[in-house]
Design goal:
- This protein has 619 residues and is of the alpha+beta class.
- The protein folds into three domains: 271 residues, Bira Bifunctional Protein, Domain 2 (BirA Bifunctional Protein, domain 2); 191 residues, no CATH class; 148 residues, Threonyl-trna Synthetase, Chain A, domain 2 (Threonyl-tRNA Synthetase, Chain A, domain 2, 2-Layer Sandwich), CATH 3.30.980.
- The protein contains 19 helices and 19 strands.
- The strands form four sheets. Strands 1, 2, 3, 4, 5, 6, 7, 8, 9 and 10 form a ten-stranded mixed sheet that branches. The chain has a four-stranded antiparallel sheet with strand order 13-14-19-18, with helices on one face. Strands 15-16-17 form a three-stranded antiparallel sheet.
- Strand 5, helix 5 and strand 6 form a beta-alpha-beta unit.
- Helix 17 crosses helix 18.
- The longest helix has 29 residues.
- The chain is globular.
- Serine binds next to strand 9 and strand 10.
Length: 619
């Protein structure tokens, strides 16, 4: 059986053989992308290149990208959903298209990792009259020939969602279309997307999985939710971009393939439970030790085991990229992951601090491929233990609050009460429901949902304002602020010292936000000095140059080695005269004179040893 590391390597090697260059995973925190909090799929860090910018490593790339989907926090608990996962990618930036890419996917799955082709089913785009794009017959024919080559006559079914599986092997669906915002109608202007083709693995040809599921009244088909089929990969034929006028072809057609690393491993195991793979089993075994409970064979235990092992892993991976628990932005999700872990651990009978024991297990799983995680183990343990300590107190306090709600004639816990427990004490709904059940009480879910929606609307409004920058925004103002970020970085190093290192950056047309390592609050004098230095570089109207070079050359040039692990081969080096040298994807302005007046608006702490500056350019 392949280990996770072997599978990842086999995948990368296979695509290297087909002329691809390996790019390392980008951070879970998007850089210079104001539109989103997390890297949630493989294409995110590559958006500028998919839109037509030249990539320093060429037109064929392959990678395994760390991804985090915060929307799925409450989905975790079944055998397949996780918030953190890796996406195996192969990318054609205007190079090959369907007729090359689909055969490679098929060859990798059937010859390299030896999945039985009989267990593979595929889907394609059914077409959409409104946008004048027809059914993807080209993909259908390619798949037919591929299946034929292994002795399978592949039948095509349109409408399996109503008719069921039948004898089909290739299915067309309306929503076989991929963009970060979903189907064509939902795409904002400027967003790239296109028809896609998904590969599913069949775990239960005898229909046992469907018939045992709560979906048994409906017909089973590859896209139903019963759990018999698991999507393991998706090839997006990204050839369109939404414009004011509708859909237009991108200057070059791309392919974006994303393979679910955990899920492919589950397919190799021929067991649909991704938590049974070695990407989770070490954590589950440690939890078994800590709780004295068992995962296998105890259905009621599975959900808490899965939730804790997913959440602690996700929180650890996020922390390694700079996200620690807080009430703000990404930190809020870290906090939720850890709190939910503590609550579910209570269900397994773990009442003492345990997060710190699990972290080394997580870092060990990823030590070889993401050494940055292992390196930060001690710091992560420290922060998480502090968070756990505090939360246990809150939780106990919340339990007391819950007890106070219980009066003699209470029949039903109101939606507002459930929401308050959820909001103020981090009580997941399940916990309130369970406690209520123990006391023989009902819970007003309808009102709870209303309360929650009200709250979500408020936070959405906030988010809209904050991320008003638009998609992969490369407006003039954003570009100016991006250049100003390089100047700020250098000025901070000159004035505070060489220990200053960028830990995050987010730019909207209104302001830049720069996170960096520094142990204490900056004094007003230091702030004034930094501003003055940046403004003097602006006034000198220094030209900015870009060259494509290698990592060793970039280091020799004294470049800030921030992104040194980003590309293994060629990198773009941006120089602001002799003042600042940084490896960066761009874009930047041509000379500093046009930036205007740089002003720091705010300097604040965002966790131990980390500071955040918000700054603007005034005209
Ligand atoms: N972008 C596609 C997805 O996330 C394929 O990588 O499914």
């Amino acid at each position: 059986m392949l280990t996770p590391n072997e599978l990842r390597q086999k995948y990368l090697d296979f695509f290297v053989k087909q002329g691809h260059k390996i790019i390392p995973s980008a951070s879970l925190l998007p850089e210079n992308d104001p539109t989103t909090l997390f890297t949630s799929c493989g294409m995110q860090p590559l958006v500028p290149y998919l839109l037509g910018k030249e990539h320093p490593l060429g037109m064929r790339l392959t990678d395994s990208q760390k991804s985090f989907r915060s929307n799925d926090i409450e989905e975790v608990g079944d055998n397949r959903h996780t918030t953190f996962f890796e996406m195996l990618g192969n990318w054609s930036l205007g190079d090959y298209f369907k007729s090359k890419q689909l055969p490679w996917v098929f060859e990798f799955l059937t010859s390299e990792i030896k999945l039985d082709p009989k267990n593979l089913y595929v889907t394609v785009f059914r077409g959409n009259k409104n946008i004048n794009i027809p059914r993807d017959d080209e993909a259908i024919n390619i798949w037919k020939n591929l299946f034929k080559s292994v002795g399978i006559e592949a039948e095509v079914v349109d409408g399996a969602e109503k008719k069921g599986l039948g004898n089909g092997r290739i299915f067309s669906y309306e929503d076989n279309w991929w963009s970060r915002s979903g189907i064509p109608d939902k795409m904002p202007i400027g967003e790239p997307g296109g028809p896609d083709s998904e590969v599913f693995y069949d775990f239960g040809a005898d229909l046992m999985i469907h018939e045992k599921s709560r979906f048994k009244a409906q017909k089973c088909h590859v896209n139903c939710d019963c759990g018999r089929f698991l999507e393991i990969g998706n090839s997006v034929f990204m050839e369109y971009v939404r414009t004011e006028k509708g859909f237009e072809k991108l200057p070059k057609a791309n392919v974006d393939f994303g393979g679910g690393f955990e899920r492919i491993l589950a397919a190799i195991n021929n067991d649909p439970d991704v938590f049974k793979t070695e990407l989770f089993q070490p954590i589950i075994r440690k939890l078994e030790d800590l709780s004295g409970q068992k995962y296998e064979g105890f259905e009621n235990n599975k959900r808490p085991f899965r939730i804790i092992s997913d959440h602690i892993k996700a929180a650890t991976m996020l922390a390694a990229d700079g996200v620690f628990p807080s009430n703000k932005d990404q930190g809020y999700f870290s906090r939720r992951l850890l709190r939910r872990s503590v609550v579910y651990a209570k269900k397994l009978g773990i009442d003492k601090n345990f997060l710190s024991d699990l972290i080394p297990v997580v870092t060990k799983i990823y030590a070889e491929v993401y050494p940055e995680v292992k390196k930060q183990e001690g710091t992560i343990q420290k922060y998480f233990s502090e968070e756990e300590e505090r939360f246990r107190k809150t939780l106990n306090h919340g339990l007391k609050e819950f007890e106070k709600l219980i009066t003699d004639n209470l029949k039903k816990i109101s939606g507002k009460q459930v929401f308050d427990l959820y909001q103020s004490y981090g009580f997941p709904i399940e916990l309130t429901v369970e406690l209520a059940e123990e006391k023989g009480l009902d819970v007003d879910f309808v009102e709870f949902e209303k309360e929650k929606q009200k709250h979500q609307e408020i936070s959405r409004e906030g988010a809209k304002q904050k991320f008003s920058g638009g998609l992969a925004d490369q407006s003039e103002q954003t570009t100016k602020l991006h250049t100003a970020t390089h100047l700020l970085h250098q000025a901070l190093r000159n004035i505070l010292g060489e220990h200053v290192k960028q830990s995050g950056s987010n730019i909207t047309p209104e302001r830049l936000r720069f996170d960096f390592s520094h142990p204490e609050k900056m004094t007003p004098e230091q702030i004034t000095k930094v501003e003055a230095e940046v403004n003097s570089v602006i006034q000198k109207d220094i030209p900015i140059t870009m060259e494509i070079t290698t990592v060793p050359e970039a280091k020799k040039a004294g470049a800030l080695a921030l992104f040194e692990d980003k590309y293994q081969d060629k990198v773009k080096l941006y120089k602001v005269g002799y003042y600042s040298v940084e490896v960066c994807g761009g874009p930047h302005v041509e000379h500093t004179g046009i930036l205007g007046k740089f002003r720091i608006k705010k300097e604040e702490g965002i966790g131990r040893g980390l500071r955040r500056i918000k700054a603007v350019l005034e005209s």
